[in-house]
Amino acid sequence: MIDPADLESRLRTRLLGRPLRYYASVPSTQDLARAEAEAGAAEGLAVVAGEQTAGRGRGGRSWWSPPAGGLYLSLLFRPNLSPERVSWLTMGVALGAAEGIEAACGLRVDLKWPNDLEWQGRKLAGILAEAAFQDGRMAYAVVGLGLNVNTDFGEQPLLRPIAVSLAEILGRPVDVADLLLAILERIEAHYLALRRGDSPTAAWAARLVTLGRPVAAHLPDGRQLSGLATRVLEDGALCIRLGNGTEEVVRAVDVSVRHGR
Ligand code: BTN
Q1: Residues with beta carbon inside 6 Å of ligand 1?
Q2: Tens-place pLDDT, residues 179-202
Q3: Which ranges in 106-209 belong to alpha helices (H)?
Q4: I need a surface site. Which of 3, 35, 78, 134 has the fewest CB within 10 A?
Q5: DSSP letter at 85?
Q6: Could you tell me the sign of the dihedral formed by the alpha carbons of 182, 184, 187, 191, in that order?
Q7: CA 174 → CA 2, 156, 177, distances in Å?
Q8: What confidence tens digit (pLDDT) does each residue in 9-63 have?
Q9: Gyration radius (Cα) of the chain, Å
Q10: If you measure from the C-alpha of residue 224 to the centroid of ligand 1, how many angstroms do you get, rounded to a whole number?
Q11: What pTM does this model have?
């Protein structure tokens, strides 16, 4: 359980989590943060919940959000960035989450294109970015992070083979508040850098487990591509070298990495 007053007293960020809204149970932190954004809230707002009853994932999927299991966090950003730079935010949040986990738990985790955190091929966290644009610039972006902290997948036959929690990896429960504080600090460092114009792409690409591996991509037009993930572009797009030697560039589709070479 998170004690919001204790959390706020230990917050060492200057932007993120100011303010921090904590709810025991909400439909989706993402929807609350977006509503506050539409009402003019300043960037830095963090919405955290102990449970989500209608957690949302990418591609219209739902995000299973049981109580006392996961970290459910949505952050409001208002960077002066062009629309194609939304991916910089997901990169910054992914890097910050991975570094926060390392700082708080001493565990190194992988990033998987486009914006998952993984451990030994099983999903540890997912990121959902939703942005609004005005006059060709980003009016705001709400970036949601769902992280399996103490989540028990024992009764979840569909999720169990593909998902993992920090508690399962470490063999002990993890303090969600300590972890959240570390993650907010690291995300803030990346956010302040990218807001100054420093690209996070190289640091993010360096941690991507996807590169150099065979991947399969399911494109929105129904095509399926198989090939080798070779590199990422500045906007986060993934380059896949096909069997005939040509290169395809894919953006924000689901790519499954085949583990083992
Ligand atoms: C994914 O599909 O991998 C992204 C999952 C994002 C889940 C988080 S949990 C906090 C925030 N609120 C939501 O409803 N979704 C995001």
Answers
A1: 28-30, 52, 55-58, 61, 63, 72-74, 116, 126-128, 144-146
A2: 999 999 999 999 999 999 999 999
A3: 166-170, 176-195, 201-207
A4: 134
A5: G
A6: negative
A7: 12, 20, 9
A8: 999 999 999 999 999 999 999 999 999 999 999 999 999 999 999 999 998 899 9
A9: 18
A10: 25
A11: 0.94
